[in-house]
Amino acid sequence: MLIHGRCHCSNISFTLDWQPEPTQIAVRACTCSFCVKHGGVWTANPSATLTVRVKEPSRISKYAFETKTADFHVCVVCGVVPVATSEIDGRVYAVVNVNTFENVDPSMLSKSSASFDGEQQDTRVARRKKNWIGNVDFAAH
């Protein structure tokens, strides 16, 4: 399934090639204050391929908080956060915000909340390496 997503103004867009074809997509509503305030509801498929396109890189702000182990890619024009990345062992891993999906029936999304408060940094990095999208490409627009 090819999933398309974008920020409100389309400065940041992505295509997520989700294989095999999902009947349900598990999504996590993170309970941290950043995700709550920005509407971050995240999903990933370790076997998927993610291509991110940015029209104007100067209009992207990367925000990292607390552990500084992930970058949230914020469009400075519209304020939407479509993707978060984490560099682990020289490789970029990512999750995408389902609130930015363009072509997915919301009934496919199986939502649960997630809290990572108190998670140790090594545990956090290992979880991302196992569960996040590991095939990520930032393509020229």
Q: What does this entry look like structurally?
A:
- The structure is a single chain.
- This protein is mainly β and 141 residues long.
- It has one domain (2-140): Metal Binding Protein, Guanine Nucleotide Exchange Factor, Chain A (Beta Complex).
- It has helices at 33-38, 121-131, and strands at 2-6, 12-17, 25-30, 41-43, 49-54, 60-63, 71-75, 83-88, 91-97, 109-114, 135-140.
- The chain has a seven-stranded mixed sheet with strand order 6-7-8-9-4-3-10, with helices on one face.
- β7 and β8 form a beta hairpin.
- The chain starts with a strand and ends with a strand.
Largest sheet data: 7 strands, mixed
**Which fold name fills CATH's third level, the topology?**
Metal Binding Protein, Guanine Nucleotide Exchange Factor, Chain A
Q: How many helical stretches?
A: 2
Strand content: 35-45%
Evaluate the radius of gyration: 14 Å
List keywords for this structure.
mainly beta, 11 strands, seven-stranded mixed beta sheet, four-stranded mixed beta sheet, 12% helix, Metal Binding Protein, Guanine Nucleotide Exchange Factor, Chain A, 141 residues
Provide a brief overview of the structure.
The chain is mainly β and 141 residues long.
